[in-house]
Amino acid sequence: MSALMVAAAHARRQVALARRAAREVARLWARVDRAAIARSWSVSVPAAVQVLGSAQATAAAASGSYLDVLLGEYGQDPAPAGLVVASTFAGVASDGRDLPGLLYQPAITALTVLKGGGSEARAMAAGRFALDAIVRTQVADAGRAADGVALAARPQLAGYVRMVVGGTCARCLILAGRFYRWNDGFQRHPRCDCRHIPASEDVAGDLRTDPKAAFEAMPAAEQERVFGQAGAEAIRDGADMARVVNARRGMQVIGERTFTTEAAGRRPRLMPEQIYADARDRADAIRLLRLHRYIT
Fold it and tell me: By residue range, what is the domain housing residue 92?
């Protein structure tokens, strides 16, 4: 199995995990009393937190074995400087918020639709969509953050290559195949399925995805769905894809709030992205990851 196949299989498992968690939480939302949305959903939030937290931990727990298999494909020693602590990535949102507060948002969304004159059915659908986005995003974020920590704990890996998974959007497609240093942040939007493939610089070229080739492999209808009719036509006419699409518009950066007090014990815990920014070198990053209990 090639490194790309290993990474793709890992990505598929993580996406499937996020979808299962979203379906399970959606069943809780379906039981909400439409005459008392806020109160009814508040009763179900603890169960939703348990489902999401469990999925986050499961996503994070896969990182170590994934990196070990990947390094085996590279013919390198998989021995890490520390082991990922999966529970550290559970029970808190990727921006530092607590999960109960985040998971209450769908009720606010539904009530806002009702207040604006929307129907009950539309309000419930809006709440469900918001809930689906929250769950999928947070499970994916936990897995990606753990992958990043596992990468940082393996100095034999220099960085990662961005890989798109399944159908993608224009913002992500133009970033496909780029190599980033191990401590560079991974930008994405809500519900983004893109993954990073940990790699050594000397093998990164084997993993690259050419955005132009990916565009040309799409049927015209798919090109226009992703880039818009005018954008797709411009690219077909030779326009630079990166100029057609502003890759940063609407993207979110992990760690905008760089501390979290959730599951942190007596003191705030640095987010992994802030650790990478603060660390003097790789050894210092590993020390900080251990200090903040991301690895043991």
Answer: 1-156
How many alpha carbons lie under 13 Å from residue 3 in its C-beta half-sphere?
23
- 13: in domain: yes
Does residue 229 fall inside a structural domain? no
- What tokens does 135 get? 């769950």
Per-range mean pLDDT, top range of 60-69, 187-196, 214-223, 263-272? 60-69
Q: Is the dihedral of CA 220, 226, 230, 233 positive or negative?
A: negative
Q: Give me the amino acid identity at 244.
A: V
Domain-located, residue 59: yes
Cα dihedral across residues 138, 90, 5, 180: positive or negative: positive
Quote the CA–CA distance of 206 and 17 in Å, as a whole number: 28
The alpha carbon of residue 77 and the mean position of all alpha carbons in its chain are separated, in whole angstroms, by: 27
Q: Which residue has the tokens 């499970």?
A: 139
Q: Sign (positive/negative) of CA torsion 118, 123, 125, 131?
A: positive
In total, how many domains does the chain have? 1
pLDDT one-digit tens code per residue, 1-11: 677 788 889 98
Q: Are strands 159-163 and 195-199 parallel, antiparallel or unpaired?
A: antiparallel
Whole-number Å distance between alpha carbons of 38 and 52: 20
Using CA atoms, how far apart are residues 194 and 162, in angstroms rounded to an integer? 7
* Token reading at 189: 């939007």
Residue 143 amino acid letter: G
In a domain, 294, yes or no: no
